[in-house]
From TrEMBL:
Alphabetized SMART domains for the sequence: Resolvase
Name the UniProt record assigns to this protein: Recombinase family protein
Any Pfam family hit: Zn_ribbon_recom
Ranges for domain Recombinase: 162-268
InterPro entries attached to this UniProt entry: DNA_bind_recomb_sf, DNA_bind_recombinase_dom, Resolv_N, Resolvase-like_N_sf, SSR_resolvase, Zn_ribbon_recom_dom
Cross-referenced PROSITE patterns: RECOMBINASE_DNA_BIND, RECOMBINASES_3
Residue intervals of the Resolvase/invertase-type recombinase catalytic domain: 5-153
């Protein structure tokens, strides 16, 4: 019985001009084959500029859809130009032939392979192995060529533009205005100023990031100074090969100085890695710009209270700095969210008990005290910069490990607690991480909107918008 719903798969690895001429020629040859065999074409699955080699990590959605359609009976035959257009991986070819054997769809190539017999499948497998070997030999030649290029001091020419280098110059030409900013920032760091000071300087001068053209943040500035390209360091597979023959903003020695300074500074940590002091910090987002809002204590006219606000130095969801227009009392928001979390926990069934969480607070306090003492000695001039930064980096690494263990232990215990409400109602400072772990099982984020100037008691309930886990919002 002749197939009536044939799927044609066409693929080309490189299409630098984007004209799809290669896949058009393949499709034409496949259609001519179907016409000679009396098969009816149902659908074409094109993969343009997509590799199928053993070294490629790029997914092939059209190939996956074609196999799924063959498995589900949407198509009853597959036609390709040649076996190396289907795949260059022997494991993938074997899996494909198993799918064909199990689901019974027909398969043909314009080169005439026959999969209906054992000999035909053997020849097809041999061709697949040859195609894989060809790809691997090609990769070896390319890698050897790349290594030779690096050893000559020529860095990798691909990838997005790095701040300081001219667009399309393959990292061979510099942008003088941006180099001037990089060098100004270097001088600031060497004079014990911070990455935050560099952020303010670059933004004040109207500079923007090289990619999305957004305002600078501390992390983005650090990323520039962490880039080996900025120091003219040529790398190959993560290994330092030598110095670039092309101009670069900083010398190798200057770049290494910056690494020492950045390694020794606390910097801005990723959300959730620092020890939190407030239950909902990290969950609150500015309703205006999408920035993560900060929570801190404030004193106004002798009255001490907690507030949450959009910081104008934080990068919002549109890539620009925070709007700074939302400033709210934290207590009312905390009360409303506590009601939501407790109501959610009330509906949960108890879970089996787990081993008690590790108590690492003592070790953490000791390390924090050692860091404070180290900083005092350095500021007093009793320590050399190199000794200070080495010691500080070591202590901070230990402290970070302990905090990660503490947070992970709290999450595990919160998720297996027999009585989650008992954990939730324990509002002691030592229990904060476990309560935050419970919040993360209920609330994804909370958008906070401005309620205007002056005191309003109580604020409107719709001045916050809660997005629970697994829902759009309420």
């Amino acid at each position: 019985m002749k197939p009536k719903r044939v799927g044609i798969y066409v693929r080309i690895s490189k299409d630098r001009k984007g004209q799809e001429l290669g896949i058009q020629r393949q499709e034409k040859a496949c259609r001519e084959l179907c016409e000679r065999m009396g098969w009816t074409v149902h659908k074409v699955y094109p993969e343009n500029d997509t590799s199928a080699s053993t070294t490629s990590r790029k997914k092939r959605p059209q190939y996956a859809e074609m196999v799924r359609d063959a498995r589900d009976g949407v198509i009853d035959a597959i036609v390709v130009y040649s076996i190396d257009r289907l795949t260059r991986r022997i494991t993938e070819l074997t899996a494909f032939l198993e799918e064909q054997k199990e689901h019974g769809f027909a398969f043909a190539t314009t080169e005439g392979e026959d999969t209906s017999t054992a000999n035909g499948r053997m020849i097809l497998t041999i061709k697949g192995a040859v195609a894989q070997q060809e790809t691997e030999r090609m990769a070896e030649r390319v890698n050897t060529s790349l290594l030779q290029r690096r050893e000559k001091g020529k860095p990798h020419a691909g990838g997005p533009r790095v701040f300081g280098f001219e667009e399309g110059s393959n990292f061979q030409r510099l942008v003088p205005e941006e180099v001037e900013l990089i060098r100004l920032g270097y001088d600031m760091l060497m004079n014990r100023q911070t990455p935050g000071d560099i952020v303010r300087l670059w933004n004040a001068k109207g500079s923007r990031t090289s990619g999305a053209q957004t305002a600078w943040s501390i992390q983005k500035v650090k990323r520039i100074y962490r880039s080996e390209r900025v120091g003219g360091i040529v790398t190959y597979k993560g290994q330092d090969i030598g110095d670039s023959v092309y101009p670069h903003p900083l010398t190798r020695e200057e770049w290494e100085n910056v690494q020492t300074i950045l390694d020794g500074r606390s910097g801005t940590k990723k959300p959730g890695t620092a020890k939190r002091k407030h239950l909902y910090s990290g969950f609150l987002k500015c309703g205006g710009c999408g920035s993560t809002m900060r929570v801190q204590w404030a004193t106004i006219q002798g009255r001490r209270f907690r507030r949450t606000f959009c910081h104008s130095g934080a990068v919002g969801r549109n890539g620009e700095l925070g709007c700074g227009k939302v400033n709210r009392s934290y207590s009312w928001i905390e009360e409303r969210l506590n009601e939501v979390v407790e109501a959610a926990l009330n509906h949960r069934a108890p879970k089996p008990t787990a081993a008690p969480a590790e108590d690492l607070s003592g070790e953490i306090n000791v390390l924090e005290e050692r860091i404070r003492g180290l900083r005092k000695r350095w500021k007093a001039g009793d320590m050399e910069d190199e000794d200070y930064f080495d010691s500080l980096a070591h202590l901070r690494s230990q402290l970070q490990d302990l905090r990660v263990r503490e947070a992970a232990s709290a999450v595990r215990e919160a998720r297996t607690e027999t009585d989650a409400l008992a954990v939730w109602r324990d509002d002691s400072e030592q229990n904060l991480e476990r309560r935050r772990a419970l919040v993360s099982t209920v609330i994804q984020e909370v958008k906070v909107y401005s309620v205007g100037r002056g005191r309003r008691k109580p604020p409107e309930i719709d001045s916050i918008k809660i997005t629970p886990i697994g829902a759009e919002g309420l």
